[in-house]
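wait is this the right file?? whatever heres the structure
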């Protein structure tokens, strides 16, 4: 695109339009990769390449144009090309490294419902997408690091597997969690059961085989079900909203222990206000990947809960950026995280 213009100088207004056009094409490619129709998956490698090339190129064009304007000098194609290429290489390195570096994020919440003197530590991990965008060695280290935190429980918040996960990867992953020495609870996301596997590598395992692997490794599956984690802590694991009528309305799920601190784990960050009215103290969700590809996270904030911590009435919601990304091994938004959550009574300094 730039080669055509290398020997001619366009008007500043036209160059601004070109810079904006390149950025918009890059963003459109990212949107199609992450949120486009499943039928377009074969085009994803081309689209992610377009995104990874055009966005830093647009930035390089803007930077060099500003430099030339300040210095009142003519544009040199070789200088612009060097800046654009350097930014492109740095962008590529950052996106690749950012996808393979999974780190904990720490959060503390206080509530008078917590009566245990020691408080509680739990881990919430969502969007691991086994076999999709990270080497398996990343998951092995991640599970080992989680176990070292010595939590009371690990909550796997959906999309742990996806349409690209093989049966062997699925079984090996759940064996890792089953052997980690910590009670593990599992709720489904919109990708786990390989509903659109025909557009990937074909169905690798059935929903029944997935659930069997979970249960054989001692992992508790929750589909609109409560489980007591302790005398003062209750967990409700939700069926994913993508399951339609199979998912119950929160009004149908009567809280058996209103005096306990209630965690509602729901893969997608939906129903927060309804959950608050129903007595939820803390909602844990994932799904958004914090946008995964910049600047999609900013766009997601306009239409819903993108990433981070939110509050409504007496309730809190934590939306994780996820421990991986989806499909493409490239992440230029927030880093990959699992959430380490401490619950304690007000004023407890422990």
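ok assuming it is, sequence goes like this
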């Amino acid at each position: 695109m730039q080669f055509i213009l290398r020997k001619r100088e366009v008007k500043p207004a036209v160059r601004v339009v070109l810079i904006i056009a390149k950025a918009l094409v890059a963003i459109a490619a990212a949107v199609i990769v992450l949120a486009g129709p499943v039928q377009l998956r074969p085009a994803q490698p081309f689209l992610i390449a377009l995104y990874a090339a055009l966005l830093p190129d647009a930035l390089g064009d803007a930077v060099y144009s500003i430099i030339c304007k300040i210095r009142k000098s003519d544009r040199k194609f070789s200088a612009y090309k060097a800046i654009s290429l350097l930014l492109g290489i740095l962008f590529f390195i950052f996106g690749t490294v950012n996808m393979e570096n999974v780190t904990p994020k720490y959060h503390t919440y206080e509530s008078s419902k917590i009566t245990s003197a020691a408080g509680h530590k739990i881990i919430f991990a969502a969007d691991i997408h086994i076999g999709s965008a990270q080497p398996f060695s990343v998951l092995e280290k991640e599970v080992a690091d989680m176990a070292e935190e010595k939590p009371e429980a690990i909550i796997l918040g959906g999309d742990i597997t996806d349409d690209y996960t093989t049966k062997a990867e699925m079984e090996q992953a759940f064996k890792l969690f089953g052997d980690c020495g910590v009670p593990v609870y599992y709720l489904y996301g919109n990708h786990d059961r390989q509903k659109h596997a025909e557009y990937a590598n074909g169905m690798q395992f059935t929903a029944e085989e997935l659930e069997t692997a979970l249960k054989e490794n001692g992992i508790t599956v929750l589909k609109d079900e409560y489980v007591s984690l302790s005398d003062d802590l209750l967990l409700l694991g939700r069926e994913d909203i993508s399951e339609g009528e199979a998912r119950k309305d929160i009004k149908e799920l009567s809280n058996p222990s209103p005096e306990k601190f209630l965690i509602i784990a729901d893969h997608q960050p939906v129903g927060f206000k309804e959950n608050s009215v129903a007595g939820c103290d803390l909602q844990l969700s994932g799904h958004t990947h914090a946008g995964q590809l910049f600047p999609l996270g900013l766009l997601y904030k306009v239409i819903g809960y993108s990433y981070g911590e939110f509050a409504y009435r007496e309730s809190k919601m934590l939306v994780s950026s996820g421990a991986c990304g989806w499909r493409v091994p490239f992440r230029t938004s927030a880093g990959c995280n699992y959430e380490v959550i401490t619950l304690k009574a007000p004023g407890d300094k422990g």
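The two ends are 59 Å apart (CA to CA). so i think its the right one actually
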